[in-house]
Amino acid sequence: xxxxxxxxxxxxxxxxxxxKPSEADRPLGRSILRGMLxxxxxxxxxxxxxxxxxxxxxxxxCNEELFHQxxxxxxxxxxxxxxxxxxxxGYMLTDTLHHLPMWATLAIWAPITVLTALLVxxxxxxxxIGLQWALRMxxxxxxxxxxxxxxDGSGQP
Length: 157
Prior knowledge:
Structural class: mainly alpha
Oligomer: single chain
Radius of gyration: 21 Å
């Protein structure tokens, strides 16, 4: 087991670092929140989306490059996670209180499922873009999509 000078024993194994340590901090929470609100994670002023789920190439306010984002499959997975909790939890709660016929159950829960998915997909995608920007992933840090250094604990680069 190796020792990490900042946090004690390193039990997680090798550490991959992205970006240079001298670069300005990008607060994670603020960046995710700005993305969830549909705003540029850098300035918080420009719009993040030009269409419902289509992000802009550059921020119209600060000209930050946003075409690097690769949110791909994470937002739908997170939407499924949210839907599973809302819909299944709500269905189970109402089913224990009121036994409805199947047609009534479908008439209630199918629209709730669709509406919930449509309401949360854009904020979740914006939050994922904000996360990638804050962590300088996929070109947001101005470098290739590979670790700058690889620390295997041996002290060698």
